[in-house]
Amino acid sequence: MLKIALTSVLVDDQDKAEKFYTDTLGFEKKQDFAVGGARWLTVATSRENEGTELLLEPVGYDFARHYQKALYEADIPAASFATDDIRADYERLSAKGVRFRGEPTKMEGFPATALFEDRCGNLIQIFETQ
């Protein structure tokens, strides 16, 4: 059986991304080492020792920058993260200066969601698992 172990999000600045994804969102840095002119920098949910890692990948190619920008301008999230309590996480992250595109909303048949900017060129969605 296949298991998702690693996925990535393009970032315009790895140092800024590391600070945002660890200090602001609360993920734990898992790997950090030099690869060429960049870093192999991953974060993961702190309470999941063997969980899926998110690679904070530098947006090093023009086509990648265009892709990232197109997703952002179309309000399409680059990644989605689950939460048990979307209202509490919305309030906690808002207090830390995270810019949400609006209050958490729930549509019939779908979980409550909220969209925010990661300060690295992406929109990120959170959704409630309850």
Protein traits:
130 residues, alpha/beta, three-stranded mixed sheet, 3 helices
Principal-axes geometry comes out as globular
Radius of gyration: 15 Å
Structural class: alpha/beta
Contiguous low-pLDDT stretches (5 residues minimum) are none
Number of helical elements: 3
User: Beta-strand percentage?
Assistant: 25-35%
Along the chain, the helix and strand elements come as EHEEEHEHEE
Helix fraction by DSSP (H/I, runs of at least 4): 25-40%
**Biggest pleated sheet:** 4 strands, mixed
Q: Mean pLDDT score, rounded?
A: 95
Number of strands: 7
Spatially, the strands of the biggest sheet line up as: 1-4-3-2
Determine the N-to-C terminus distance: 27 Å
Give an account of the 3D structure.
- This protein is 25% helix and 33% strand.
- It is of the alpha/beta class and 130 residues long.
Layout: helices, strands, pairs:
Elements (H helix, E strand, L loop, with lengths): L5 E6 L2 H11 L3 E8 L2 E7 L8 E6 L3 H12 L5 E5 L2 H10 L17 E5 L5 E6 L2
Parallel strand pairs: 1-4, 5-7
Antiparallel strand pairs: 2-3, 3-4, 6-7
Task: Give a summary of the structure in a few sentences.
With 130 residues, the chain is an alpha/beta fold.
